[in-house]
Amino acid sequence: MRGYKVYFSTADKLVTAQPGENLLALARRVGVHLDSSCGGNGSCKQCRVRVCTGPYPKQMIMSDPRRFVQADNGSPAPPNETVGGEPLYLACRGCVMGDLVVEAVPRVQQARTLVRKQLKGMKVPVDRPDLPADALVAAVDMGSTTIAGYLVDLQSGEIIAQSSRENSQIPYGGDILTRVSHTERYPDGLETLKKLARQDLAAVLELLRKQAGARKVMSIAVCGNSVIQSLLMSWDVLRLGSHPFEPVSVAPQVLKGRDLDLSSFTDVETYVMPMEAGFIGGDNVAAILAAGLDEFEGVALLMDIGTNAEIVVGGKNGLLVGSTPTGPAFEGGAISFGMRAARGAIDTVDWVPANTRTVISTIGNIPPVGICGSGIIDTVAALWRSGMIDQDGKMLESRFTRMNAEGMREVVLVGTKQEAVTPEGVIMKAEKDIVFSQKDLRELQLAKAALATGAEIMVKKIGRLPDKLILAGGFGSYLDVESAVAIGLIPNLPRERIEVAGNSAGLGVAMAAASLKERARAERIARATKHIPLPDEPEFQDLLLANIAFPTLQEPPPELPKT
After folding, report:
1. Which of 220, 251, 396, 506 places its Cα 20 to 30 Å from the Cα of 126?
2. Nearest-CA neighbor of 447 among 281, 302, 241, 309?
């Protein structure tokens, strides 16, 4: 049976589809990017496309939406929604049974993700007697959303350059559990994700190599969560999704660049950080190393907030570590106008009494195109403080809210007719209404409940309130502490005891790259921490339900013991 012609107009790419081939799978196969943080199960609704009608003489195609069909019965796929009178479809929900012209319609046009917490200029300990004194070493933190690389000068111990790129695995799942599922659903799933992980690592290292000039990179250190590191190593990740929930190995891996397909670094030593257990990977070890928790005299609580949140509690007398899946909401996934931290993203939101406009700021101070994680947290906190939602998260009627076509209430942050204002008083508009809906609010509540529940259980395990709270990770760097406390995302501690650490994992892996002593310390940390499987805790579900609600406002922080 012959194949069908499919023209992806936004990518200007004409390809051949097999009869009955899923449209999202086709796009992935031919290298056309369609947003899909759910991995293709239809829940995120990001892979929206317009299936065009009519002749396209240049491509010799007569496109007919009726040829985009449901897999189970072959009948024309129903549109997911209608915008401006035009039906829009989900690419993951239909198959190709004829020639088609397809136009991607993302909710938010994603710009390049920004690494907003700079490590460049910071210094790390140096102990590499095995390398020339003036050598360069590279460190790469492979996050679920962003791959960040750093270049360290061993002569000075200074991080002299950094680079980043978006994780190419995102279309296969916005969270790591969805990516694990992808390897189970598709025979080539593991090979595909391994290849993307290695390509991302090579690409970031290549950017660093160009910044190094004539000097050579003599050693590389890499960290990531347990799924990312396992995919990089081409290990079976299904082990992480079933009992005993352990990776193939938690030991550090010392390889040559060629072992990870690093063609520009074939003979360069490549050190992959040790892991702790389950979903607790080398990035968490690196964060503990950078924060110095293993040497802290009191009790510290470290929260690395992302699609999979890691929580560490303790100090030099012992460390407990756990993780809880929070989903992609903190990074803009599953949110109507959510986006990653890029130019045009709304990153702060407030409603000021007696002000008829929403107060917002955007990354780059340019007109808004969407809303990123810190702006989402601010939005919910501002809705709660201003009385536009109740304690259970129901959105209430107000002059800023309206009912949408689905019969749900939503708040308009800024739009074509509804102006917003910056904190400096500059008027802003958007090309279309940017809204935050009741559904978006529920997504955020579930994510924040998972994180708060994990932290609550970990603190109970240690037996007392922490002396300090460390917010790690790129998202934590730009989180407004007051907003996070207001919605119950983080514990209500005295503000002087809350520390924003930034990209601790990136700093920790740079330390492991530049120092054999710090590398040995990281290995001791990985062996010494005790893993708490949080979802298995008897009270997890009850606490999760309780933490969906918002805490009473204006509760003073508790009195804590002196450290």
Report:
1. 251
2. 309
